[in-house]
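User: My collaborator sent over this chain with a note saying "see what the structure looks like." That's all I know about it. Can you take a look?
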Amino acid sequence: MPVAVTPVSTSMTQATLSTRWTQLVLGLIAMMSISSPQYVWTLFTKSFQDNLHTNLAAIQITFSIVIVLQTWLSPLQGYLVDKFGPRLLIAIGCLMSGLGWVTSAYVTNLAGLYFTYGLFCGVGTGIVYIGIIGLMVRWFPDRRGFATGMVAAGYGFGAIATTFPIDTMLRSEGYQHTLVVFGVILGIVGAAAALFLRMPGPADALPPAPAMASTRDVAPKAMLRSKVFWLMFVMMTMMSTGGLMIISQFAAFSRDFGVASVMVFGLAALPLALTVDRITNGLTRPFFGWVSDRIGRENTMAIAFLMEAAAVTIMILFRDNALVFVCLSAVVFFGWGEIFSLFPSTLTDTFGTQYATTNYGFLYMAQGIGSVLGGPLAALLHDATGSWLPVFGIIIALDILTGVLALAVLKPMRKAYSP
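Assistant: Without extra context I'll predict from the sequence alone. Here is the result:
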């Protein structure tokens, strides 16, 4: 759906302009503070395994609990943020995430780990993620794609700032001291930022939303009865599943392709690719969000999703070339991570802002389904066929199908939608 670019309203005061950018920075800080429980988890698995005297599979259940609670409770978390406001709920979420680290440092059994790291970090990060996204689509009606992309990128980039300090402290002070110190720091930093968050009020003369955006607010119950929502849900599920198939098995198929240890620019291809991919996975969110603010959500979806399909295809055709593997994997992640800016902005454009946080909570469940399907399906298909090629065939098909659906079905369906 082409979206007309709306210039910043002349009625928006300098104070309001400053306030909404301040809100964006505060949201970015809060998102960065909750990224480590997911993205730095892998650094702690060996320590937990040794201390609790159990196997890796049992330890990894903790991570699954975090993801499931973060995504599948998101409608409830979004409802609470809509009802009680972002300041208190997001501050509580940041503190819960930090508390999960602090308390997990003292557990002596698996159940304790599940109920500390799994429960507190899962619920806490979910509240913050959903709350911040819901807040940004309200403060930036004219730049929803860019604003949601920025804070979503913060969730990915936050771990870049903490990975090396955490790894260093782990080696020198042990995992328990590291969990306590960083749990306290990240919890306090996130909560402090959250205490200055607020919803836009009547006095905030914000610029209008694009001409094609909905001027009516659709409640969750009515949204769930609409075909356009379920089309978006299926599309996001397909993109999440395909992307997580790659993420979860990235190291495995790079080793099978024989490129993991090949030197590229003086570095082994696998860690180099993982580093570059993390950067492009973050950059794509504000970039394609910004693009979608100018050329339309569905047009941008088609470009990004079909670009990912092409990149995966070329990466597989030249899978024995380490340099191509590193470069194309970066393009693959650049074509995937933008789902976290395009889908929330499209949803709010369609169903309005009053229930934006709760509504996105329902859509965000698609990421939870993708996390459950992606890794296991890829592994099962590889085990059954003895090859990664069928897995990548599915990924390419999902990318192409979702890109085509964006233009051929979602675009006219959104245009015709009337609540």
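A starting point for your reply to your collaborator: The longest strand covers residues 263-264.
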